[in-house]
Write a structure and sequence with these properties.
Radius of gyration: 17 Å
CATH architecture of the largest domain: Up-down Bundle
Number of domains: 2
Structural class: alpha+beta
Length: about 210
């Protein structure tokens, strides 16, 4: 496998999560900005991601889509950065990364769309209620400095991004534990570099 990394993204998308993760690993990468409804849905990009959505990361001949998978993959592909715990210590790392990809994403999306699960159907949706999800997430970020313990990992990139966006757009409750947790993450140089790059890319798109 070559060391070449390519990020397919749009600065107004979840591609910001993948950008942050790439900045954390510190390896050089190429950025391909795609446009909603045109290049993102074009035949060329559908060869990379048949869903026609971003982000996607290509590492040599390996294609990875879905933000949680991208974070986990890059942590393993660049082990020297220490962004994944040792295999025997990954219980919380996997638990909270997949919690964010499953119950948290579903609950927040439903709330943003104004969809309320009928009480008699709560068992069907898997996450129960929005309050259940918020209370569980609060416990997770309040227990340790980082989501998987005392050390920052790729799971913090993914979970932290969800919380940061939720606080920004009002889809996650502004609880003190959430604000304190994301506040720690937002001080990271890699997060700030990624944010600056995506903000600059967004400004360029608006000019076009």
């Amino acid at each position: 496998m070559t060391d070449e990394l390519v990020l397919y993204t749009n600065p107004m998308s979840r591609g910001r999560i993948a950008r942050w993760m790439l900045e954390e690993i510190g390896a050089p990468y190429q950025t391909e900005i795609l446009h909603f409804g045109t290049t993102m849905k074009g035949n060329d990009y559908r060869q990379v991601n048949p869903m026609g959505k971003v982000p996607a990361v290509v590492h040599g001949k390996t294609v990875v889509t879905e933000c949680a998978a991208i974070c986990a993959y890059l942590a393993d592909a660049f082990p020297g950065k220490g962004l994944a715990p040792a295999p025997a210590d990954r219980a919380d790392y996997y638990r909270w990364m997949f919690f964010a990809a499953g119950p948290l994403e579903a609950a927040v999306s439903n709330k943003a769309l104004g969809f309320e699960v009928p009480k008699e159907r709560e068992r069907m949706v898997g996450y129960g209620t929005f309050k259940d999800v918020m209370d569980t997430l609060e416990t997770a970020v309040r227990t340790n400095p980082y989501i998987a313990g005392d050390t920052f990992t790729a799971a913090d990139v993914y979970v932290g991004s969800q919380i940061g966006y939720g606080l920004q757009w009002g889809t996650i409750e502004k609880r003190a534990a959430f604000e304190q947790y994301f506040g720690r993450l937002a001080l990271r140089e890699a997060y700030q570099r990624a944010n600056d790059k995506d903000n600059a890319a967004a400004a360029e798109l608006q000019k076009a």
